[in-house]
Predict the 3D structure of the following.
Amino acid sequence: MYFNSIKPLDLVNSLNKNGIAVLKNYLSNETIETIKKKIPKLLNKSNLIKTASNIKEIKKNNFKNSNFYWLPKKFNKIFYGNQYKQPTGEITTKVSNSIMKKGYKFYSKYTNSVEFKDPLVNVPEIQKIVFNEKLIKVAKKFLKTDPYLGYVAVRCHFKNNLPNIDFNLFHTDGRNKKTKNENKLIKLLAPFHLEKKQKIEFSIINVKRNKIKSEDYYKYQYSKASELPKYLKKKIIKPKVYKKDIYFFDPDNFLHNAKKPKKLRIMLYIIFVKKNNYMIPKTKKIKIKKKYFRLFSPRQKKFAKYLCQI
Ligand SMILES: [Fe+2]
């Protein structure tokens, strides 16, 4: 599960078995410090932030959510849905511009997390991680075909008194028991906020979804650890991801969550996909500066092929 160097086969074996593979000491102090210093300033430029979901509002009004389009009808009776059990981006109540303009110390009382627009442009320091050829090789081994950058995000999570939502609860990203072969993907996460000896807020359940009964799989989609049945609860892994570490994980086959942070959490998300993945139309909206793209190797250019060059 833990690796000091990038050995694609070993990492992929761990991913298939445990759902996760941690690369120790991957990030340099310099990269971490640069990003960590920069992010709070960028968070206060509301024009750089994607419209955030207003969790305070949906809590106050107890808005109902019946948008469980992913839930097979026959499980309607056993799944207790509410407004917190959905991806934060799908929540239709948004934080107003006037609130966003007051800075992140203020707007973080309304939302649990925000994502930057155009991360490759606004936080160019992430490029050396996103386009690292060795990491691309790991994705290739896992996907068994040439990987493409499907999505990249820099998302910040806040300490506040709002309820747990979305990724604070155990879930699989795809939410369905089966993923079409063409949509198979792998995620890479890099934390930038961890202090020495501070562990990542992330947990993963080491039970592959095909080993979970369909009833349980759907019933426990978006659950707290305390709500899980024993056989899942006892398989919760809190991986030893510390400062400088990054980790690959399989978000469709393994239930996972991230606790709300004690202070600002800064995360880079990279999604490696196959060429016919459903998210490619979204990929084509991710901007990259031509001047950087030009410097890429042929392999990197292929990997970045769906991005929008500006
Ligand atoms: Fe997730």
